Amino acid sequence: MVSARTRNWILALLFLGWALGNLDRYVMNYAILSITQDLQLSASSTGLLLSSFFAGYALMQMPGGWLADRFGARKVLIASVVMWSIFTGLTGAAWSMASMILIRFLFGIGEGGFQPASSKIIATIFPVKERSRAMSVMLSSSAIVGLFSPILSVWMIQTMGWRTMFVVIGAVGAVIAFLYWRHIKLPQDESATNTLNGSEQRKSSVSLLLKTPLLWSLLIAYFSIYAVNWGLATWMPTYLSKVRGLDMVSLGWLQTIPGFATLVGIYVSGYVLDKLPKGREKLIGSFSCVVVAVLLYFMFTASSVTMFITYQAIVSLFLAFVIILLPSVVLKNLPAAVAGTGMGIVNTGGQLAGFITPIAIGFIVEAFNGSFDAAFWMLIGFAIICIGALLSLNYEKGELLKQNADSASA
């Protein structure tokens, strides 16, 4: 059993890596204002560019999880950070829309293995009763980056330009990859190929995963809630700038408010989820989606920027609970031997949403002559779909999978 000190050290490194990965995604949402001008992009082209990362990221989720289960999470983790750092740096060298889309797609491929591999590490070294909190700590890096990235992004873009900014972020990634190679040692993980006896048994476990209704409900829930999350994250700077008339500095400061709400929501959610009786969390998650749907309507109909930001902050708080709930269900209901593959399967839904939603919003905005109202209605629809997916979660099927996988590894 890994000591508490070692677990916390590894978790801190996972937090650091996930923070950098999220920083690149968040700064792109602000850099896109300058990139759109430099490359002369339309709204639909902007949406395609914002989505190109998620196309590669979604494509790599299941292979990344399988590779982590098959060859060891540490190897996949290091390879992921190295590859995404290279293509983050190359983002600053893009000379056309086509080159930018290709680079961002390959960046997504590189980062795609990180979350399945890191989730497998958490499932391997943390006891079940601590996994929600461990996951919330790692994912809280996204909220912390979201809190500071508006101000940081504006400052970096204005002082060094968007091209140099991406080169600097890529260099930081190389440092983190070295830290992973030097300090993350997982003897259990390196023998991951022996967890299930032979390739046929491993294929059997993957087949069981794909036949488990729990996984499909989670995949739909991931898709729908991340459609809301990434729809807001990718287009919010553009919306507030073009529709609400905010300048870059005001935009940066105001977006720290929902960022702080997300951070609070993530930490509280991790603690609450580890305390809730099994089955109760999906009811609270469904209620959270109801709140999100209602407040999304209040957001785009708000009469002032103050009320808009207030509603956005509350939406961020409830979104955080659902975003922590979904991986917690995976880590607590699947055997550690297939946690990477399981996380890769369900997270594919979330990243497909990240690919589809920005493109869809771009086309919708263009079709409605710059109006975002129809886009908000689409996000409301996704929140409603998530309610149904959460209520359909069947934990008994997950227990059956765990028993079958355990018997396969015996």
TrEMBL record:
Compartments where found: Cell membrane
Keyword check for Nucleus: no
Span of domain Major facilitator superfamily (MFS) profile: 10-398
Keywords on record: Membrane, Transmembrane, Transmembrane helix, Transport
Entries under Gene3D superfamilies matching the protein: MFS general substrate transporter like domains (1.20.1250.20)
InterPro entries in the record: MFS, MFS_dom, MFS_Na/Anion_cotransporter, MFS_trans_sf
CDD domains assigned to the protein according to its UniProt record, in alphabetical order: MFS_ExuT_GudP_like (cd17319)
Membrane disposition: Multi-pass membrane protein
UniProt GO MF annotations: transmembrane transporter activity
One Gene Ontology CC term in the entry: plasma membrane
Record protein name field: MFS transporter
Species the sequence originates in: Brevibacillus antibioticus
